[in-house]
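Let us practice reading a record.
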Amino acid sequence: MDWFEHNAWMVWLVLALVLGGIEMLSLSLVFVMLSGGALAALVTALLGGPAWLQGLVFAAVSVAMIAFVRPVAVKHMRPSIEDVRTNVDRLVGAPATVVEPVDSARGLVKIGGDVWTARAERGEFLPGDVVKVVAIDGATAVVAPSGTTSPCRS
């Protein structure tokens, strides 16, 4: 027991490292909070605090970090579903250049580096006009006037 009293800081350091390693495998942001509690207990041990105080500091800091720090960290690390647009959803709102005339039935536009079939939500567009993608319907881009489209044709 005498060894533990003199080397408690090593126990807390090993515990902090082990908990940090478990966090790297789980990515739950719980074990890193427990690791933070172990580091606080390590500081308490280095300052000469008794074992009961070290345990209390570990528990208090761990609970506080799980309750207050983890929710904020999770919010910033994992964006909500609405924030993540993938595949064709990311094209909505993108500018497109008209390649072949676009009307309410047919046409071609270039979005990024890809040519898409298109139809106009309203109006007609001629080659060279810059339009905005408002929706993707199957393999067809639905486009509408953008700020640089000639107003006489939209």
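A brief commentary: The mean pLDDT is 89.
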